[in-house]
Amino acid sequence: MAEAAGRLTELAEEVLGAPLPVRIRAWDRSESGPPGAPTLVIRHRRALRRMLFRPGELGLARAWVAGDLDIEGDLYAALDLLAGLIWERPGSPAPQRAAVLRALARPEIRAAARELLTLAGAPVPPAPPAEEVRRRRGPLHTLRRDKEAISHHYDVGNGFYSLVLGPSMVYSCAYWGTADEGVATLEDAQRAKLDLICRKLGLQEGMRLLDVGCGWGSMVLHAVREYGVRAVGITLSEEQATFARKRVAEAGLADRIEIRVQDYREVHDEPFDAISSVGMAEHVGRAQYAEYAGALYSLLKPGGRLLNHQIARRPVADEEAYHVDEFIDRYVFPDGELAPLGRTVGQLEEAGFEVRDVEAIREHYARTLRQWVVNLEEHWEQAARLTSPGRARVWRLYMAASALSFERNRIGVNQVLAVRTPEAGDSGLPLRARTWSA
């Protein structure tokens, strides 16, 4: 085969029944596809073996992480063009799986596939990249399995996260504004988010705050410095806890902040006046969410507030058939699950909470993710040294694709304010509570 790119383009278009929206450059330096379009670079024929032996998202992910596959040009434009072909989403132009299978059953397509297999080289699948989590066995969301999943995502080096997140060390959606509002940079926007949460929780001097999934300690540090509370931060990541404790000690706040390596199910020193849970509930899982909501309710004193900041997916017709994307599950958030906003609100209410406010801020997360991608790209060589080139590639793809998902309204993120309202009915909130959203 003289020109691999041309043959690959022909085969892809026969199977998809539509023109390929990106250009292809193959390992033999041949190119095919629309001029000026982002280019999918197949650096090694090994990429074909990965995709042939594991068709779909996981095969592509393995090729990307291993460096066998790359994109030249605008990464976001390329992912946007490919999204409908790779990921089937409600309302997307993706071909139906049945139509693709019918195409693959045609004799000429089978012949082309055999030709492609020959082109791919060795008739055995390459080993998955080292960054991939192997398929897990046993029940989901046990204490041990959750700790292992958190370790995979967060224990990859505090230095790496410092490059990506910047000085704030906040790994959740920032809250953007304008330069006139003093919110011009990522650091400003993360500080604005932390302060928004503190105001929603009604923090006052002397209160006791629990931060569930405290990360590198930014929330508890802000709450103690600015609002005079006492705080407990819990995380399952040993590296996060070490980093957070160092920050607390350097700030001279060790007498007011305690950082624990602890699961929310193991906290028994209630009551707390307020609880923040920011970007943590995505790890809980649908089977455990009722327990999560009930546990937080029991840890609050009557009148106490919960701020639950959580990514949400869109509802689907068959909720039981929902599954996490393979790339996310194997490389990013093992065992993570997203739930529709309605289910989250319902389960908080079933646990006894009175839900008082929901603020949707998905556009803020898209902007945050794009800034993290800029940070990663600007420090690419250092980031790859601090973890691995494959891990850096995982984060670049994950964050860029996630930014597009928020922009296209495929997923959202919401701050839900809930109260353990006393039997007498006084929630403790002002009549016009949205004064915090300025």
Overview of this protein structure:
- The chain has 438 residues and is of the alpha/beta class.
- It folds into 2 domains: 4-120, no CATH class; 143-437, Vaccinia Virus protein VP39 (Rossmann fold).
- Helices cover 45% and strands 15% of the residues.
- The protein has 17 helices and 11 strands.
- The strands form 2 sheets. It has a 7-stranded mixed sheet with strand order 7-6-5-8-9-11-10. A 4-stranded mixed sheet has the order 2-1-3-4.
- Strand 5 (208-212), helix 10 (218-227) and strand 6 form a beta-alpha-beta unit.
- The longest helix is centred in the last third of the chain and has 19 residues, at 389-407.
- The chain is elongated, with a radius of gyration of 24 Å.
- The model is unreliable at 88-97 (pLDDT under 50).
Query: What would CATH call the homologous superfamily of the largest domain?
Result: Vaccinia Virus protein VP39
CATH C-level of the largest domain: Alpha Beta
> What's the story with the biggest beta sheet?
7 strands, mixed
N- and C-termini, Cα separation: 63 Å
How are the strands of the biggest sheet laid out side by side? 7-6-5-8-9-11-10
- Unreliable stretches (pLDDT < 50, length at least 5) are 88-97
| Named CATH topology of the largest domain | Rossmann fold
By DSSP, the count of extended strands is: 11
Q: What is the N-to-C order of secondary-structure elements (H for helix, E for strand)?
A: HEEEHHEHHHHHHEHEHEEHEHHEHHHE
Query: What is the mean predicted local confidence, pLDDT?
Result: 90
How much is the radius of gyration in Å? 24 Å
- What's the number of helices? 17
How many structural units, i.e. domains?
A: 2
Principal-axes shape call: elongated
Class from helix and strand fractions? alpha/beta
| Shape-level CATH architecture of the largest domain | 3-Layer(aba) Sandwich
Query: How big a fraction of the residues is strand?
Result: 15-25%
> Portion of residues in helices?
40-55%
Family: Belongs to the CFA/CMAS family.
Domain Polyketide synthase-like methyltransferase: 160-422
GO molecular function, one term: methyltransferase activity
Keywords: Lipid metabolism, Methyltransferase, S-adenosyl-L-methionine, Transferase
